[in-house]
Structure formats: structure tokens, C-alpha cells
């Protein structure tokens, strides 16, 4: 096999970087990494965690907030409990905080996990034109997909992607 055949495609390359970035997270529930890409140029990286200089979840524990949402599926209403840590700034939010709007215009975001509703809202207004993710976040999928379609933002899941082994952790829901 030649060296060219062994070369990773761009989606794999950038998602591998997002997973490597996620290893900086100290969240015991989920490690998430995000990268901003313009064409083939990497412009920024971020991961989920507490604000700089503030104790994180591994030091102080998670600050879990519970919310209930009415979900209608096939005409059936169901109350769905959603838990989230409010100590942690999400990787996508950190990426937006630490990159410039001018760099985001027309760019792609590679993120290890499908954005939640809040992050999707922020990304939809950020200037990016594509979001590529690996792990699903089914609690918000239908709402997020619908919004991305309305905004004309490409929203892709990498189904056959395999993360680098050294980046994997056990995640809790």
C-alpha cells in the first residue's frame, strides 16, 4: 500500500484533532472537543470545562440542573428529563469565545458530540456554514436538525468514524 492510500481524509483528520483536544477536559461526565476549520486551515480548538481560574467538576463535583421538556413523537406526548452540568462551559461555547467572528465566516466546526440546543443556537449565529460531529445527542437532535436546515448550515454526522483509542473514555448520560 502506498503512502497516499494511508493518508487520512480531511474529515477524519479534523475529527481526530477534536478528540485529542477533548482529552484536556476534566469533566467526569463527558469529554468534548471542538475545532474551527476554514478550508483546510485549523483556526482554533476548545474543550468543555469550568471557566479559567474556577474549580472544575473533578475538584468540586458537577452542578447538575434538571429540566423537563414536553416531546411529541408520532403524536405521543412524553415528558423527558434532561440533566446538564451548569459548572461547565461547552466546547462549542469556548470555541466561539476564543475565536474571531471574521475567522468563523464560512468555516466548519468539527465537534466530537452533536451540539445541544443552546450550542446549536450559538453556532447558528456564529457565521459557520458546516457542523460535523461524531457522537449523537438524541435529546435535541430533531430540533437542532430542523434549525440547521432552516439556516442552510450543513449538519453532518460521521457514522463510520473511529476515534483514536487513546482519546476514549466511558461517558455517562
TrEMBL record:
Does the UniProt entry include the keyword Hydrolase?
Answer: yes
Q: Record keywords: Disulfide bond included? A: no
PROSITE patterns on file: CYT_DCMP_DEAMINASES_1, CYT_DCMP_DEAMINASES_2
InterPro entries, alphabetized: APOBEC/CMP_deaminase_Zn-bd (IPR016192), CMP_dCMP_dom (IPR002125), Cytidine_deaminase-like (IPR016193), dCMP_deaminase (IPR016473), dCMP_deaminase-rel (IPR015517), Deoxycytidylate_deaminase_dom (IPR035105)
Molecular function in Gene Ontology: dCMP deaminase activity; zinc ion binding
Where do the catalytic residues lie?
92 (proton donor)
Signal peptide extent: none
> Which is one Gene Ontology cellular component term of this protein?
cytoplasm
Q: Which cofactor does it need?
A: Zn(2+)
Which UniProt keywords are listed? Hydrolase, Metal-binding, Zinc
Pfam families noted in UniProt: dCMP_cyt_deam_1 (PF00383)
Tell me the ranges covered by the CMP/dCMP-type deaminase domain, including all copies: 9-155
Q: Identify the residues that bind Zn(2+).
A: 90, 116, 119
Cite a single GO BP annotation: pyrimidine nucleotide metabolic process
Q: Into which family does the record put it?
A: Belongs to the cytidine and deoxycytidylate deaminase family.
Alphabetized PANTHER family for the sequence: DEOXYCYTIDYLATE DEAMINASE (PTHR11086:SF18), DEOXYCYTIDYLATE DEAMINASE-RELATED (PTHR11086)
Name of the protein described by the UniProt record: CMP deaminase
Q: Which organism is it from?
A: Paenibacillus amylolyticus
Amino acid at each position: 500500500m502506498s503512502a497516499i492510500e494511508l493518508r487520512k481524509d480531511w474529515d477524519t483528520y479534523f475529527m481526530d484533532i477534536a478528540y485529542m483536544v477533548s482529552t484536556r477536559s476534566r469533566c467526569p461526565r463527558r469529554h468534548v472537543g471542538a475545532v474551527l476549520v476554514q478550508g483546510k486551515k485549523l483556526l482554533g480548538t476548545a474543550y468543555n470545562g469550568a471557566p479559567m481560574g474556577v474549580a472544575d467538576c473533578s475538584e468540586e463535583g458537577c452542578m447538575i440542573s434538571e429540566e423537563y421538556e414536553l416531546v411529541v413523537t408520532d403524536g405521543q406526548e412524553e415528558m423527558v428529563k434532561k440533566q446538564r452540568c451548569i459548572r461547565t462551559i461547552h466546547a462549542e461555547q469556548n470555541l466561539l469565545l476564543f475565536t474571531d467572528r471574521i475567522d468563523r465566516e464560512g468555516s466548519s466546526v468539527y465537534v466530537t458530540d452533536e451540539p445541544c440546543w443552546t450550542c446549536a443556537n450559538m453556532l447558528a449565529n456564529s457565521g459557520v456554514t458546516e457542523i460535523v460531529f461524531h457522537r449523537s445527542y438524541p435529546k435535541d437532535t430533531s430540533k437542532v436538525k430542523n434549525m440547521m436546515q432552516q439556516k442552510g448550515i450543513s449538519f453532518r454526522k460521521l457514522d463510520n468514524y473511529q476515534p483514536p483509542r487513546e482519546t476514549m473514555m466511558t461517558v455517562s448520560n
